[in-house]
Amino acid sequence: MTKNFASDNHSGALPEMIKAIQGVNVGHVHAYGGDEYTQNSVKKFKSFFGSGVDVHFVFNGTAANVLSIKAFLKPYEAVLCAETSHLNMDECGAPEALTGCKLRLLPSADGKIKISDLDKQYIRLGDQHYSQPKMISITQPTEYGTVYTVEEMKAIGKWAKDHNMFFHVDGARFSNAAVSLGKTLKEISADVGVDVLSFGGTKNGLLMGEAVVFFNTKFAKDFKFYRKQLMQLGSKTRFVAAQFEEYFSNDLWKKTAEHSLKMAKLLRSQLSEIPKVEITQKTESNAVFAKFPKEWVKPLKDKYFFYVWDENTFEVRLMTTFDTTEEQVMDFTNTARELSKK
Fold first, then answer.
1. Which residues of 84-97 are buried (b: 16+ CB within 10 A; e: fewer)?
2. Are residues 257 and 153 part of one domain?
3. How far apart are CA 332 and CA 106, in angstroms?
4. Do 206 and 286 fall within a single domain?
5. Is residue 3 in a domain?
6. Does the global pTM surpass 0.85?
7. Do 271 and 198 share a structural domain?
8. Nearest residue to 178 via CA among 168, 160, 191
9. Residue 1 pLDDT greater than 60, yes or no
10. Is 162 a member of any domain?
11. DSSP 64-117
């Protein structure tokens, strides 16, 4: 299946990642993160996120999110998040099953949460019958491909601090958000009050691997034990770490995000010109949401696989990646144009 707008999980790995893995596939080094490659990778993270961060590698995004919560919260506490968030919709209940914490869901039409809705959930403090609100989790970019502005993130960070709560960011596509906003990674994390970030690798061209980045490092103290208990401690950590070191070298992280954003903008602009196509969300990262006539879905999916986001309205999600080409975008949209003429 070579033609695909389904997910950035469907793409292969960046050639640079394969070379990075091959480059450290020599000799014997200390296991479990005690090697120089892991330490060098952590230094790279510090150069982008701030010298005071604490960084731990895991295998996948679900683990990064679950372990971020577990490091900060007690089992009787709750996480406030958007009803459309990946944390709620696509983790198969892992956050609640593995941390004991309750997810309290906030309404969202565009993937974002609002301060007014946080206020409504900050209730029943000290009530032993009620899971106590203690963390806010946002997805950046959101599941709808929209991006929180720096001002919106600062407002959430301040609200969290004022209410003695923690601020977590699910950043599976965090690099895309930084590029979309024209900001550094630090400006949309440490500088806006984030306590812990799940930083994505796999969706951005790594073969596998994610990172949990602590800005509030007090809560990183016991992380290594939680990571081991939840089976996310890699013995040959160098193979994950080497990929991140390469990812942060020579602006590779920025170049790949810029390309996927450019392809998404092109896809949106071409679809916008086609009769009967309705663009439903802002295109601020590498996702385009649109509604197609029901009868278009099968012939389009036969040529370029994608997911129907809402089977009631036939709203679809189209994802671009580091290896999406202009030719693929034009071929797909030309097929839609032909369907519009029938």
1. bbbbbeebeebbbe
2. no
3. 35
4. no
5. no
6. yes
7. no
8. 191
9. no
10. yes
11. HHHHHHHHH--TTEEEEEETTSHHHHSSTTHHHHHH-PEEEEE--SSS---HHH
